[in-house]
Amino acid sequence: MNQPMSLQDFRALVEKHAQIGIVPSMIPGVVVSRMDATGSPDESSTGTILAIVAQGTKRLSVGSAVHDYGPGQFLIASVDLPVSGQFTDATPEKPALGFGLELRPEIIAELMLNSAASEFLRPVRGESSPPAIAVGDASERLLDAAARMLRLMDTPRDIPVLAPMIEREILWLMMSGEHGATVRQLGLADSSLSRVRHVVRWIREHFAESLRVDELAELARMSPSAFHRSFQAVTSMSPIQYQKSIRLHEARLQLIANPGDIATTAYAVGYESPSQFSREYRREFGAPPSRDLAMLRA
């Protein structure tokens, strides 16, 4: 009889296959991470992912919400959001270790067609929008499935056949668990979360344009009040705050890649005033553009 997967065994597997940084593995959609230092908060995007911490503690800030998760816990992100994140206790002697799996809506949608998922369909559509990010405790079954996925890296020829099966097992465990609504709505084309995701993608592609909430609500096929409520529930931000965060993150990337005229960058990402851009940049990243870039280069 198989012994239940312990966190210690899972940690050893992650450490065996991890490289420095957050690195895609040979298994499609799977990343294994190792961080040897805490460092300063890293500005990035979540993507749609399940992340399980094997060792260390990570803090993720999304708008006004802060999420802390540590060994044996997972984080689900069902919408691509701009975030600030850092491991809070990582050293070379005791590095932070993690496992990540991309959440693919098409696979979740396929699983939702299974007759066993019919019980999920009724309550989800009537519920309010689930948050885009949720934290919970990883069960022994989830750790066991993630560990079997990692072991496939020892037998690469098995990956094309067995990895898709284990991926579906992991997704099913998440869909039927405590935070299943956040995962399930990824597979529902007409769910409120999917409608918000559609608007989020539009904002990311048109971040430099001026926007009106009523036009975004129309894009989401929702009333303005329902849209604003759902967007806030999913992203922990208003649509205007989300656009502002995307603009500032894009500006930072542009300035890192091509340090030049700050005013030109401000106009390029949609700001009408360089002074307003500098104020909001400092509020977002803790320092004005010139000082922030100098610290990053250092």
UniProtKB/TrEMBL annotation:
GO terms for molecular function: DNA-binding transcription factor activity; sequence-specific DNA binding. Pfam families: AraC_N (PF06719), HTH_18 (PF12833). Gene3D superfamilies: Homeodomain-like. It comes from the Bacteria. Residues 197-295 form the HTH araC/xylS-type domain. The keyword Thylakoid does not apply. InterPro entries: Homeodomain-like_sf (IPR009057), HTH_AraC (IPR018060), HTH_AraC-typ_CS (IPR018062), Tscrpt_reg_HTH_AraC_N (IPR009594). Keywords: DNA-binding, Transcription, Transcription regulation. PANTHER family: ARAC-FAMILY TRANSCRIPTIONAL REGULATOR (PTHR43436), TRANSCRIPTIONAL REGULATORY PROTEIN (PTHR43436:SF1). This is AraC-type DNA-binding protein.
